[in-house]
């Protein structure tokens, strides 16, 4: 299919994620990062920049019942299983609203969870309702195909080096996405670059192929391009893909990285 945007390392595809993923060949990617809808847009309120705001993010995030939510997660995770190489891994980010369904769906669709990463946000917004604890963490699941032949890649040495010579733990700390990373436009659930940098460096090598089926404003693709990986991002919103495209135009890829016939399939 024709790309919404394409450069020597990145490709953005506009459309329904299920339809676009179905058009891509088996084993196209070495790693997948997904930040699927949390289904928490319920007309409630939250806090952003010290101001009271609506939690509604868009029709794509509207709340659904448990069965529909889980069916949705099983369907897209099933497609991810097909699109990953045997040695490939998948990362899924989410809050408690959806991550438990994703974890169950991973196991039901043939994956084995390797890690349950807790991302601790150093500057979370306050809880305005004051009826429960402040939400200051998200979970990132890391999984591989549940097969003895699936030998996943993990750059243990680099992660240890990044952690001051000690084994890196499964609790990662850092701030929310800074304003500088939203200069091209805003996305309500945009992840910070440092988070994707660590994920991509931990589980891929230079020249690997990365997919994000809910790419939004393009953080996964920006990180992949910067780190010398090929990437494909899918989203149903042309507005968000326009933001992603502008970000990618500003990100320089390593000089040796050139597109090849096999580097970005589909």
Q: CATH superfamily, please? A: Vaccinia Virus protein VP39
Q: What shape does the CA trace take? A: globular
**Uncertain regions: pLDDT < 50 for 5+ in a row?**
43-48, 52-56
| Overall CATH class | Alpha Beta
Number of E-state strands = 11
What is the CATH topology classification name? Rossmann fold
Head-to-tail CA distance between termini? 8 Å
Given helix and strand content, the structural type is: alpha/beta
Number of structural domains: 1
Q: Per CATH, which architecture?
A: 3-Layer(aba) Sandwich
Helix content: 25-40%
Q: Bin the strand percentage.
A: 15-25%
- Report the average pLDDT across residues: 91
Radius of gyration: 18 Å
Number of helices: 7
Described by strand count, sense and barrel closure, the largest sheet is: 9 strands, mixed
- Spatial order of strands in the largest sheet: 1-2-11-10-3-6-8-7-9
Q: SSE string, helix = H, strand = E?
A: EEHEEEHEHEEHEHEHEH
Question: What is the strand and helix layout of this fold?
Answer:
Elements: E1 5-6, E2 10-14, H1 17-22, E3 29-34, E4 45-48, E5 51-54, H2 66-83, E6 84-94, H3 99-108, E7 111-121, E8 137-145, H4 156-162, E9 171-174, H5 193-203, E10 209-212, H6 219-226, E11 230-235, H7 238-250
Parallel strand pairs: 2-11, 3-6, 3-10, 7-9, 10-11
Antiparallel strand pairs: 1-2, 4-5, 6-8, 7-8
């Amino acid at each position: 299919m024709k790309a919404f945007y394409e450069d020597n390392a990145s490709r953005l595809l506009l459309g329904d994620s299920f339809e676009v993923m179905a058009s891509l060949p088996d084993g196209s990617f070495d790693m997948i990062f997904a930040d699927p809808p949390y289904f928490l847009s319920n007309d409630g309120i939250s806090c952003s920049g010290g101001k009271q705001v609506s939690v509604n993010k868009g029709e794509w995030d509207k709340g659904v019942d448990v069965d529909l939510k889980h069916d949705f997660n099983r369907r897209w995770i099933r497609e991810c299983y097909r699109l990953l190489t045997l040695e490939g891994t998948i990362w899924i980010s989410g809050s408690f609203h959806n991550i438990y369904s994703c974890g169950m769906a991973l196991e039901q669709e043939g994956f084995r969870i390797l890690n349950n990463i807790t991302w601790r946000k150093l500057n979370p917004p306050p809880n305005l309702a004051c009826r429960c604890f402040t939400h200051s963490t998200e979970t990132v699941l890391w999984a591989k195909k549940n097969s003895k032949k699936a030998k996943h890649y993990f750059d243990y040495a680099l992660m240890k080096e990044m952690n001051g010579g000690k084994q890196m733990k499964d609790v990662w700390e850092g701030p929310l996405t800074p304003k500088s990373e939203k200069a091209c436009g805003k996305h309500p659930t945009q992840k910070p670059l440092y988070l994707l940098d660590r994920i991509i460096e931990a589980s891929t090598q230079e020249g690997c192929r990365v997919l994000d089926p809910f790419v939004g404003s393009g953080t996964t693709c920006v990180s992949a391009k910067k780190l010398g990986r090929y990437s494909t991002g899918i989203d149903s919103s042309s507005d968000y893909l326009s933001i992603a495209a502008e970000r990618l135009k500003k990100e320089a890829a390593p000089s040796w990285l050139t597109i090849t016939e096999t580097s970005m399939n589909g």
